[in-house]
Every structure is written in C-alpha cells, then in structure tokens.
Design brief:
Length: 137
C-alpha cells in the first residue's frame, strides 16, 4: 500500500493538524484567505475532512495560502506525512504543486509587500502560540 493511500485512509479518522494550530490559523485566515467558515468547518478543512459549508479560496490569496501550507506542513510529523498533507490540501484549494513550489516562500522574499510581511508574521505567531500551548503541562 502506498503512503498516499495510507494517508488518505488514516486522515478520515485522525487529525493531521493540531487542533490548537488550526484555531490560531483560523484567527488569521478565516474571512481573509478563505471565505467565512465556522471554527469546526475550518478545523475539518485543515484536516482534509468534509465540511458542512463549501470552502472558497478568496481571489488573489493563493500566494499567502502557499506560505501557510508550507509553515503548517513543517509542524506535521513524520515529515512525509506533512508533505502528503500539503499536496492534498493544495489540491482542495485548487492550487497546483508547480505554483506552490515556485511561490511558497514569496511572502518571505526581500521585496515582499508590507501586507505579505504582516501575514507571514501572523502565521509564524500562530504556529508559535500553538507550540507554547502544547508545551504547557
């Protein structure tokens, strides 16, 4: 059985992305990069599960979504599972792997707009908050 098939089978019943991280990312991305969603729909969407409402990617937000996917995928262990999650999530968003590979770090580039730099900080802060929360005894 291939890793991709096994991932799809297990993702149906277990979460790939930590709940706290989903909620911190929700604060950043809901109604900005994606159309408005309930918190539970967003968590399901992040974990590649069915949602009650269809998820829409806002126009001209693919670049920022690529950075979010890169950052979140790096929190998923094992690493191969994070890569598979990224591919499947991008597919759900209608973003090609080639676009992702080319643009995933653009919001980090020296010439990035102020808005993109702020977005990057928001995503990085969301990941750090989730890490801190998960370290708390």
């Amino acid at each position: 059985m291939s890793d991709g098939i096994l991932f799809k089978d297990t993702s149906a019943w277990m979460d790939t992305v930590d709940l706290a991280l989903c909620l911190f990312i929700y604060e950043v991305c809901n109604d900005c990069q994606f159309g408005h969603l309930s918190g539970s729909d967003f968590v399901n969407f992040m974990n590649l599960k069915p949602t009650v409402q269809p998820v829409t990617v806002r126009p001209k937000e693919n670049l920022r979504i690529c950075y979010m996917v890169l950052s979140v995928s790096q929190t998923v262990k094992p690493r191969e599972r994070g890569k598979q999650w990224a591919e499947d999530f991008l597919q759900r968003c209608g973003i090609s792997k080639s676009y992702y590979d080319k643009h995933r770090n653009d919001v980090c580039a020296q010439g990035a707009t102020r808005e993109n730099r702020e977005y990057r900080k928001s995503i990085d802060n969301a990941i750090e908050k989730a890490r801190q929360l998960n370290r708390t005894p």
